[in-house]
Design goal:
The chain is an alpha/beta fold. The chain has a single domain, classed as Metal-dependent hydrolases (TIM Barrel, Alpha-Beta Barrel). The chain contains nine helices and nine strands. The strands form two sheets. The protein has a six-stranded parallel β-sheet. The chain has a three-stranded parallel β-sheet with strand order 1-2-4. Strand 5, helix 3 and strand 6 form a beta-alpha-beta unit. Helix 8 packs across helix 9. 42% of the residues are buried. The structure holds fe (ii) ion (FE2). Fe (ii) ion binds next to loops.
């Protein structure tokens, strides 16, 4: 599997406070059957590292990973919180895309209703492909909104936890609806230190419920296409 959304890079956000925990998270991911991870630290008010700082942290983490003999492949991206002024920041090239591609992982406030479709429209018009992070978790998310996002050229990511974890019933219900309509592009872990990585369980669940090809698409092939640009 390829994990397109993970907070594993140490000391850049609330994902991991030290190198040891980060390396443990990689080993755990490998045990789950993950071969490639895109590291996507938060970019929001509290966590505001520059692109240069993130690139530096990424290079040094890759070296530590090699030293530890972990063979998982790493890439860099960012999970960008959309707030006022986002258009200008995108135009100025302030954000890191996923693996140097044209795809940007974006997130929204969980509670305060945001016009997600409008943001997708604006970014798509600028030539970017927005990937909406953990769509099922926004309190105002619904199936019509998901249809609209896809029609406007955006992609939908859901968390593995929302398929098989102990998360809220509402998350599971919406995730299930999204799968039934074929609206899910990516399942990812959104792993933080202290959370359970359930990628393997989620893959098996999707494979049994929706078929092997769908599982391959949402856990691997679609992410591979993004990594390859
Ligand atoms: Fe995240």
């Amino acid at each position: 599997m390829i994990d397109l959304h993970a907070h594993v890079l140490p000391l850049v956000d609330d994902g991991s406070n030290n190198l040891t925990d980060s390396l443990k998270m990689l080993i755990e991911a490998e045990a789950q059957g993950v071969t490639d991870i895109v590291l996507t630290p938060h970019r929001r008010r509290k966590f505001c590292k520059s692109k240069e700082e993130l690139n530096k942290a990424f290079e040094s983490f890759c070296l530590e990973k090699e030293k530890a003999g972990i063979s998982i492949n790493l890439y860099l991206g960012q999970e960008i919180y959309i707030s006022n002024g986002y258009k200008k920041l995108f135009t100025n090239g302030e954000f890191l895309p996923l693996c140097d591609s044209n795809y940007f992982l974006i997130e929204f406030d969980f509670v305060e209703e945001t016009d997600v479709s409008e943001v997708v429209y604006v970014l798509a018009k600028q030539g970017f492909v927005p990937v909406v992070a953990h769509f099922e978790r926004y309190s105002y998310a619904n199936i019509d909104m998901a249809r609209e996002i896809k029609a406007l050229g955006g992609l939908i990511q859901v968390n593995a936890q929302s398929l098989v974890g102990k998360g809220k019933f509402k998350f599971r219900k919406l995730t299930s609806k999204l799968f039934k309509e074929g609206l899910v592009d990516i399942v990812a872990s959104d792993i933080h230190c202290g959370r359970v990585n359930c990628m393997k369980k989620a893959y098996t669940f999707v494979s049994k419920k929706y078929g092997k090809q769908i599982a391959e698409d949402v856990f691997k092939l679609n992410a591979k296409k993004i990594i390859e640009g």
